[in-house]
Task: structure prediction
Amino acid sequence: MAEKQPQSDGLTLGIETSTARGGVALRAEGTPAAEGFIDTFLNHSSRLIVVLDQTLKKAGAAPGDIRAVGAGIGPGSFTGIRVGLAAARGIAYSLQIPLYGVSSIRALVEGAAGRPTPLAAVVRARAGWYYYALFRREGRELVEERPVQLLPGERIREIPKDAWIVSPDFERISEEFPVFKKRGEALFPSAAAAARLAEEKAARGLPSEAEGIEPLYLGDYTKKPPPVK
Result:
């Protein structure tokens, strides 16, 4: 596909479907334009395009106004991420615009901009495994101190004691690890953050990632983890 070069005008579309609460969001020249949510317990495929159409109408825009797309690549729900990427690819190819992959963990911590750091992003995987990354604020920027990794439950206890935990699964995690109950909150990866991060890539003139973009999977969490002590 011969994509159009990213332009400073027009809209940037963000798609985030890595958790049970998905969404789409539009930005116009650095400013949020409109956002729509998909609360369908990972049934993203039947609702995503409908919600996108509604969000475009809310912004007073048409599909042809979109100049770049950013899609959450995970980690998170296998099915949800693939649905979001498939939709993003279809939009990018049909409009001949760039597609950029965005970390869903980054889209999660961006929603905690007003919280103290360090910020610990924790997302339940399967069978006692967790995705984990640690961020600190340097000036106005959130800097990744520990890249996202897959950890068994016993190692989640290694989260720094001064960290504020953000997780779409916070209620369940705080039940599993009561020590975390007063140290965090429930947040979901944000389509608005995905749009902003994609807008930054487009503004830097980065080439489209449509050909090589893949869901982010971090290892074999089907094996049994060590017991939590």
Remarks:
- Residues 11-105+189-203 form a domain with the Nucleotidyltransferase; domain 5 fold (CATH 3.30.420.40).
- The first helix runs from residue 48 to 58.
